[in-house]
Amino acid sequence: MQTAFTLLIFPGLGFIVLCAWLFDWLDRRIIARFQGRVGPPWYQPVADFIKLLAKEDILSTGINPALSTALPVLSLASVLTVSLYIPVARTAPVSFEGDLIVVLFLLSIPALAYFLAGWISGGVYGILGANRSLLQYFSYEVPFLMALSGPAILGNSWRIAQIAQQQVGTTWNLALQPLGFILAVVGLIGKLKRDPLDIPKAKSEVVGGSLTEYSGRKLALWHLAMDMQTVLGIFLLINLFLGGTSASPLWGGLGFVLKALGIVLLLSTASVLYARLRIDQLANLGWRVLAPLALMQLAATIWMGG
Amino acid sequence: MKSDKMIIPIGPQHPLLKEPIAFTLTVEGERVMEAGMRMGYVHRGIERLAQERSYVQTIHLVERVCGICSHVHATTYCQGVEALLGLEIPPRAQYLRALLCELERIHSHLLWLGVLGKNLGLDTIFMYAWRDREIVLDIMEDLSGGRVSHAINVIGGVRSDVDEAHCDEILRQLDLLTEPLARLVGLVEHERTLKARTQNVGHLSLEQIRRYCVVGPVARASGLDVDLRRDMPKAPYTDLSFKVITHTAGDVWARTLVRMQEAVESVRLCREILAQLPDGPISVKAKRRVPPGEVVSRAEAPRGELIYYIRSDGSEKPARLKIRTPTLTTLITLPEQLREVNMADVPAVLSGVDLCIACADR
Amino acid sequence: MVNWARRKSLWVLHYNSGGCNGCDIEILDLLTPRYDVERLGILKEASPRHADVLLCTGPVTRQSRDRMRRIYAQIPAPKWVVVIGSCGSSGGVFQGAPSVMGGVDQLLPVDMYVPGCPARPEAIIDAMAQLMEAIA
Amino acid sequence: MTHSLETILEALQATFPALSLDTRAMLTDETVISVPGDVLTEVVGELIESFDFYHLTTITGLDTGEGLVLLYHFWNIHGLTLYVALPYTEARVPTLTELIPGVAMYEREIHEMLGVDFTGLETSAPFLLPDDWDDTLPLRKQAVESEDEV
């Protein structure tokens, strides 16, 4: 019974979906306030989701129906399994040595599913969006992994819960590895295809990217998977860099919420400030700037953590 | 990734284009090899319609050639007909027309900046530019009653007048506009990612500009020092002092700078016009029948040189009305600009030339 | 419940079938801070697959007639058509031109007409509000 | 180094004796030179090279009831228009695309609207008119009259 609760309600499905909608609403609201606008009401993500569920689901000819429905479900499933390993209130439903690597692998499945969705959609914009999402995947993934392995080396363990545990009370990894945190945030922006790096789904260049042909329920699943990925990315960063949930229940919970809102604010300001980069600029930024920095960061942690 | 040729339609319906025009880009990998273009989606046969309407009705037709620069079209048309009639319109009317022309230039350039920002993924500039543009629209609405199509022109002068209190109100709103406009210009000049997306993109050399007879800010950004307000000055511009802004880089970034500095210059010009506003009547009675003759009337629209050729055969209806809008010249250079361009730069190039398809298709 | 969701989240697709882009600018104005339709849940979408409401402007020129039918077919049901400006309603000032077919209602079933040349942003928001009541 | 108009007119008169310079100026500072069709390309070439009149604003095509007329509007601080009269039957003019690459658009439009065919200009695709246009020439006089009676 207890595992059913943790699976379905608290750190599991219910909590993550609610957080996804809350963060999505917060993000759109903050961006609107930056631009001098009012921004959508609180129930907007819920209304969008229900409306999309009730919309007709057009399947354009030439798309293999089974695969095109399987992809959003696959990416949703992989994102949900990630929520098992990330400790929210000091307890992670499942935690074992090396779950950080499993989480990183599971987080990259939606990116590949997005690529495949564009590839099978057959439309010109779909293929173009798919090519770009693959190009983008290669340019942000390596610095992202290196940045996240920094804290693991420092805490010399690959278990997220343990890494978070070590930071409670002592200095956060953010203080020890500020560069690693920045690289991780940039990698997260790339993975979530958020505004400065939303090249695969750029409205003005490739209409809808891989999702141009999707409508109705499948589109709702895609959006939900994207939002949940945002939530879990933020929780992952909190546990690795900002010390996870600290000891006392009241202070720990509040601290966790504040840290999460801080990162959402950070992501929103990034998307308001910068114009979208070109795909070759991103690749060149990824390999000429981010990767060497990540290497330097790793060398410093190994030499320091040792 | 298969790297054979792919045909990408930037079709009549595309978020990049406000209006329908069909580009077909043959792309290899990420590089555009060839750009084809099909116009005519917005062709309403205005020149044909004008032959079936009287001179007065044609004013309303001509104002709807393009929603952004409707006043300049009406002004050029009325100046042509007044030249045919041999009418000398009162100086106050000329000043009021010039005032609205300059306001329309500011609103057109701010609108363009917003669209450029939106196409490059920086929605903030779109929101800020269009929010400040609302001030200009309010001024135009107070002046003529209409936000976008003003219908302030009549043959022989202007329809609505401006009294003393109204002038101060406009000056106050202009002051309200200068500070955000200066902030926008500063933002555009120092925004690194915007500069990265627009520098040496869609480059046009001065030689190409001369060969393709390109006009307007696109030409001035490549160093062509031509501005009809100074080279063929009509009434108010003779005693207004303003400088023509040119750059030499000739890419989308130089065009941004030219347009933004022109907007700032136009705000200053509006103040000067209001300061020297002569008093007197605002319109002169015009006969319905126009004596036979032909005239070419030119004006400087926000996008460049606008030509009206009007031929009258003494009846109430114009025998022939030819409109040549500035966007046509930039459309000619587009296939040349788009060749060898990275696919991700296409939005920057397309929004850099400030396309107004309704103008081009007539 | 579903109707509430449909009312609160109208995704809009804009197509200009030959107009003078006065109305298109007023539609883009809706997104800007002064009118800001995002607070009503209205988003401007890029692909017909994601849209609910088709905003048409301009008299239908013969060249963009079949393109318009295709776009209308691509939008998943339930869908609505709102015509902005007098050109879309009746051909407006370009009536009688050989290459213009006149109003949009000759082509698509229209739910809402917004008068005005160009239609004011407030009039468009009022039309969307009435459309929302019509959905309930 | 903009030459004054008079020097240009004399120079053109010297090189092209067949030119009848009925310089009836249009009302707004525009001098008109009537040029026979076949010598058009040489005159334009001369204008561009020696007198720096590179800027062709547009070509106006009109139907005056007796025949078709093409007006080539040039501009360099002053306006200069070349007036080319063409009979209905044999409306043929050489194209200027080698001298001024952008002129193809104006020529294709006139070809569509008035039926003047420009030798050397590929005019397969319709330019402004819809694809399914039943190829009546919209700007021809009789097209407009027939519209009124019906």
Question: What's the gist of this structure?
Answer:
The complex is a heterotetramer of chains A (306), B (362), C (136) and D (150). Chain A is an all-alpha fold. Chain A is built from 13 helices and no strands.
Largest sheet of chain D: 4 strands, mixed
The count of domains of chain B is 1
Q: What percent strand of chain D? A: 15-25%
**How many separate helices of chain B?**
15
Instruction: Give the strand tally of chain B.
Output: 8
Q: How can the largest sheet of chain B be summarized?
A: 3 strands, antiparallel
Spatial strand arrangement across the major sheet of chain B: 1-2-3
**Helix fraction of chain B by DSSP (H/I, runs of at least 4):** 40-55%
Question: Separation of termini of chain B?
Answer: 42 Å
CATH fold assignment of chain B:
Cytochrome-c3 Hydrogenase, chain B
In the CATH hierarchy, the architecture of chain B is Orthogonal Bundle
Based on secondary structure, the structural category of chain D is alpha/beta
Secondary-structure map with pairings?
The complex is a heterotetramer of chains A (306), B (362), C (136) and D (150).
Chain B: E1 5-10, E2 22-28, E3 31-38, H1 46-50, H2 55-63, H3 70-85, H4 91-119, H5 123-144, E4 153-154, E5 157-158, H6 164-190, H7 192-198, H8 206-211, H9 217-220, H10 228-231, H11 235-238, H12 252-275, E6 293-301, E7 304-312, E8 318-324, H13 327-338, H14 346-352, H15 357-361
Helix pairs in contact in B: 2-3, 4-5, 4-12, 4-14, 5-6, 6-12
Chain C: H1 2-8, E1 11-16, H2 22-29, E2 43-44, E3 53-57, H3 65-74, E4 80-84, H4 85-90, E5 112-114, H5 121-135
Parallel strand pairs in C: 1-2, 1-3, 3-4, 4-5
Chain D: H1 5-15, E1 30-34, H2 40-51, E2 56-63, E3 68-76, E4 78-86, E5 92-94, H3 103-114, E6 117-119, H4 141-149
Parallel strand pairs in D: 1-4, 5-6
Antiparallel strand pairs in D: 2-3, 3-4
Structure description:
- The complex is a heterotetramer of chains A (306), B (362), C (136) and D (150).
- Chain A has one domain.
- Chain A is 72% helix and 0% strand.
- Chain A contains 13 helices and no strands.
- Chain A has helices at 2-8, 13-34, 44-53, 65-85, 99-120, 124-154, 160-167, 173-176, 178-192, 203-206, 217-241, 249-273, 279-305.
- The longest helix of chain C has 15 residues, at 121-135.
- A five-stranded parallel sheet of chain C has the order 2-1-3-4-5.
- Chain C has helices at 2-8, 22-29, 65-74, 85-90, 121-135; strands at residues 11-16, 43-44, 53-57, 80-84, 112-114.
- Chain C is α/β, with parallel strands linked by helices.
- Chain D is built from four helices and six strands; from the N terminus they run αβαββββαβα.
- Chain D is globular.
- Chain D starts with a helix and ends with a helix.
- The chains are: A mainly alpha (306), B alpha+beta (362), C alpha/beta (136), D alpha/beta (150).
- Chains in contact: A-B, A-C, B-C, B-D, C-D.
- The B-D interface holds B 38-40, 43, 45, 47-48, 51-52, 80, 83-84, 210-213, 231-232, 293-298, 305, 307, 309, 311, 319-320, 322, 324, 328-329, 331-333, 361-362 and D 26-30, 54-58, 60-63, 71, 73, 75, 77, 79, 81, 100-102, 104-106, 113, 125-130, 138-139, 144, 147-148.
